[in-house]
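Late entry, evening session. Most of the bench is empty. Finally got around to the prediction I had been postponing all week. Sequence below, unchanged from the version circulated by S.P.
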Amino acid sequence: MRTGERCARASGSARCRRRSGSTRWPSRCLLLGPDATPFGLAATACLPTTAIVLASLDAEAYPLHVLSDFDRERRRIEEALHDGVQQDLAATVVAVELARELLDSDPAAARSLLEELAAQVEAALERVRALAGTVYPSILPVRGLTDALRSLDVETADLERYPLEIEEAVYFSCTALRSRATRARVWSDGAALRLELLGVTAVKGDELSLARERIAAVGGQLDLSAGRVSAAVPLR
């Protein structure tokens, strides 16, 4: 946690209070109930990047759009696990049982089935990795924006490593809006990290709000005008 920032309970809710007197949500807070049981993860952006706080279980303690974001993300992950990972594992169990039955009666068929199963398991692993990447890109803290944004088909130029909260803000803003644009690019002009998406259409309100909140939380600004999204995050 940065100097001058501390997590405190405010009006029965989990908030991050800064010396300036402003009260904002931490970017990633592990929410703990009165009995210290984890029950949620706050995902809206505000420094510090990570904090563990005591929180009220009362739904009124949280802004409605934050709870909605939590629930939407939970549903997305649950559907991906049910329709993807669970089905892959079920098919693997069936194939293993069949191969076991064939071992004595037809070893060649069992061997062929196991070879097919190996390919299926590898494909399933790739799908799990892809799902994990939508939750949080493991490559981002290790290799930075240039490599992380490549998977989103975002052009990059003159990028270095930046504080993780800035890289996260830019990455997740691109994640929220990239599918709505024909072209996207991120670059640095030395004074600011800049994001531009062109040919933007059919942007949903929650997608734009998420991107704006992310960028604003690190001191930047994001605007939408005439099919173009532009954002700038100061680096100094």
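Two things to note before I forget:
The helical segments are 64-105, 107-135, 139-143, 145-150, 164-177, 205-217.
The chain has three domains: 5-62, 65-135, 139-234.
Will write this up properly tomorrow.
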